[in-house]
Each structure stands twice: as C-alpha cells, then as structure tokens.
Design goal:
By secondary structure, the chain is of the alpha+beta class. The protein has helices at 14-28, 46-58, 72-80, 103-109, 126-134, 139-155, 249-262, 287-290, and strands at 37-41, 63-66, 87-91, 113-117, 159-163, 166-170, 178-180, 191-193, 198-202, 209-219, 225-226, 232-237, 240-245, 267-273, 295-300, 321-325, 329-332, 335-339, 342-343.
Length: 348
C-alpha cells in the first residue's frame, strides 16, 4: 500500500480490511453461502472492533456473538448448530477460553472451518494497520513461492544463512517442510491462525547445524517482539546455542529461562516467512503474527509440536522462542533464494 500506517486510522482501514477478508473467505477457506458462519468477537481492543466491522461487511448474514456479553453456554449452543463445512471466526483481543472446550481443535474435529485472529490487543494504533495489511491474500505469490521453497528444501542436503558476514550452516538435510499459505485443498482441516505466509522445517539431524547467525529481533519473556539496539550474534555448535555476542539483558533472560527449563538451548525450527507486510522495519509486537514476516526466523528451545526427535523427550521440551534473522542472503544448496529482503523464486 502506498500510504503509511501513521497516515491512516483503524476506522479508515476497515474498507481495506474487508477487501482482504473477502479474498481470504473466497480464495483461502473457500467459504460461500448457504453455509453458516458464526463470528465470535470482543470489544476489548480497537483492532478487534475494526476487524469485526470488516467481517460484518463481508458476511452480512452471519451470526455475530460478543464474547464478553454472552454466556458460554449460549456460544457453545451456537457451535452445536453448525455442520461440516460451516465457518467459525474468532476475533480475540487476547485468547478466548470456554472452560475445557478447545475451540479450534473441537471445531476442526467436526470438519468446521475456522479463522482465528488472536492477541489483537498486543497491536495497538499503527501496529493494527500493519496487521490489516498482513491479511492481504495473494494466492499466486504465496502458493507459488511457498511450493517452490518446499520442493527445494525437501530435496536439499545443505543450506546456509548469511548474516552480517557470519554463516549458519545446515548440513544434513531437512524434515519434510510444511506450508502455511492458505491452500487447504489437500489438508484435513481448513483454516487456522491468521495472518498466514510461511514455510517451515528443521534440520533432520539437529546436531548438524553449526556456525554463527545474527538476529535483529526476538520474542522476549513477555511474548512481545523485542528489538535490541544492534544485532545479537548467536554461536551455534552441534545444534545448540553455546554463546552470544553483543547480547542484551532481555535476551540473556530468554536464554536463562530456556536453560532453567531444559538445561541447554537447542536451535530447532527454520522458518521461511512470506508475508510482505511484515519486514525488519514493519514490526508488530505480537510474536505469533510477526512470525510470518518476509525473511527468516529460527526457534530456540526444545519444543516443537510438529517434528519429533528421538533425543528430545516431549515432556522435557517446554520452550519455543522465535528469533528473527538479520539476513543478507539464504542459499539452498548453491542457489540464492533470498536476498535484499525478497524471495527470488516463484515456481518449482
């Protein structure tokens, strides 16, 4: 978009949001009447109210339920009326809780489509405008670049992250890469948390990751994106962070927390973010949203819900902290696939 977040207000961005949400509904989750739609929302943040107004424009026949003013039994009763292929949208300033009812899990079990917008209160004012920009759905770009990167990663043995003159080398191949690009045609469940735009994997052998990598931002102990004054260099030996250069007290606290829980700091996820609304300069505070930023991120800590490793016991894996790379380029085998803030490949 040509205008900047500071030049716009959330009220004026409702029209933009409704356009983006229309594309998500039609192209990504493939929702269409006469299927039913239920929107559960709250009024605890400006962004939540703005998104609700945008969905009202897109779904005038939907049932809208204000979470804080509605008994939980009534909300559950509305869900009970839904059938496979219907849609639930959750617009949450924090994260909704319905006793022991795990909303998305239970709805997916019944083949109901779900769109989640959590933790919106973490992104006030201009950040909310960046978040709205991140909802733009460019299916050709997301699916084309995402598929191309997945195919390259699935057959690769070696990748290198170049950052500030440092190199982090992955040398043993990768787990099967997963896509989060709004293409649910071959998936059991339709929907998930938005915004989207990511390809992720991890080293097949966690100990085959060595070198140094500079990070520009990280998720701190308050689950917010933290920007230090300058990049922090991580020293990685056999898949573990063994030292840091130019660290900060906030990042030291993150590492100390991981070590207290797990004894050491594993490096696990390799995330390739595709969402061009988020960059190292266009940042929102919510880590779960910013994780899709156009560039590379890694996870620290032993926890990963998708990939199992024989040398990591699930009950001992407690932390998953995203860190965002100050990347110059990224190579898969000898091919440069990311440089100057952009992905360079669009087709397999």
């Amino acid at each position: 978009m040509s205008d900047t977040p500071n030049a716009r207000s959330l009220d004026s961005a409702v029209g933009t949001a409704s356009n983006h949400l229309h594309d998500i509904l039609a192209q990504a989750v493939e929702y269409a009447e006469p299927a039913a739609a239920v929107v559960v929302w709250d009024a605890q943040s400006e962004l939540s109210v703005a998104l609700t107004d945008a969905y009202r424009r897109c779904l005038p026949e939907a049932t809208f339920i204000e979470f804080d003013r509605t008994p939980q039994a009534t909300i559950l009763g509305a869900f009970e009326l839904l059938e496979a292929g219907d849609l639930v949208i959750l617009i949450q300033s924090t994260s909704f809780r319905l006793a022991k009812f795990r909303i998305r899990v239970e709805l997916f079990r019944r083949s109901i489509k779900v769109i989640e917008h959590p933790h919106l209160a973490r992104m006030p004012g201009p950040e909310g405008l960046i978040y709205i920009d991140s909802l733009a759905y460019d299916g050709d770009y997301l699916r084309g670049v995402g598929t191309a990167l997945k195919e390259r990663l699935d057959r690769a043995q070696r990748c290198v992250i170049h950052s500030g003159g440092e190199q982090l080398v992955f040398s043993s191949g990768f787990e099967t890469a997963r896509l989060n690009v709004g293409d649910y045609r071959e998936m059991k469940n339709v929907g998930g948390q938005f915004p989207i735009g990511e390809v992720f994997t991890e080293s097949a052998d966690l100990e085959a990751v060595n070198g140094r990598v500079r990070i520009a931002l990280f998720g701190d102990t308050s689950y917010s994106v933290n920007r230090p004054e300058g990049p922090i260099t991580l020293v990685v030996e056999q898949g573990r962070v063994t030292d840091t250069l130019d660290s900060t007290p906030e990042f030291d606290a993150v590492l100390a927390s991981i070590r207290e829980d797990e004894g050491q700091v594993w490096l696990r996820e390799l995330g390739l973010g595709l969402n061009r609304a988020f960059t190292l300069d266009r940042v929102v505070s919510d880590v779960g949203s910013y994780e899709r930023m156009c560039g590379l991120h890694l996870s620290l800590g032993a926890k990963h819900m998708i990939y199992n490793k024989p040398n990591i016991r699930k009950k001992d894996a407690r932390q998953h902290v995203d860190v965002f790379v100050d990347v110059e380029s990224f190579t898969i085998e000898d091919e440069v696939v990311f440089r100057d803030g952009a992905w360079l490949t669009e087709s397999p």
